[in-house]
Design a protein that fits this description.
Distance between the termini: 19 Å
Largest sheet: 2 strands, parallel
Order of helices and strands: HEEEHE
Oligomer: single chain
Helix content: 25-40%
Number of helices: 2
Number of strands: 4
Structural class: alpha+beta
Strand content: 15-25%
Strand order of the largest sheet: 1-4
Length: about 100
């Protein structure tokens, strides 16, 4: 799942703080969700979070089932930061 801030209004002063607080809340909320309700021994979810700030390009993709997409180095960097993060941890780039 990917969340994006500062697309509509100018939130340059607060966007990094807002996404950081969201990340903290998401990690905390996920850690309360059972992996398998029928087997509590399986434990709880542990998510990874990574975020990065920078410019993106957006477009609507598809005609039968249109979806909104974001592209660019910023998206790639944020994705890599998430995939290289440890479970239950949040990685933030210097750019944020």
């Amino acid at each position: 799942w990917m969340g994006v801030t500062n697309l509509g209004d100018d939130q340059n002063e607060t966007h990094a703080k807002r996404i950081a607080l969201f990340a903290i809340d998401a990690v905390a909320a996920a850690s309360k969700v059972l992996i398998d309700e029928d087997d509590p021994e399986a434990g709880y979810l542990h998510i990874r979070v990574g975020f990065h700030s920078g410019p993106v390009v957006s477009n609507v993709i598809g005609s039968l089932n249109p979806r909104y997409g974001l592209f660019g180095d910023t998206m790639n960097t944020a994705s890599r930061m998430e995939s290289l993060s440890w479970s239950g941890q949040i990685q933030c780039s210097e750019a944020s």
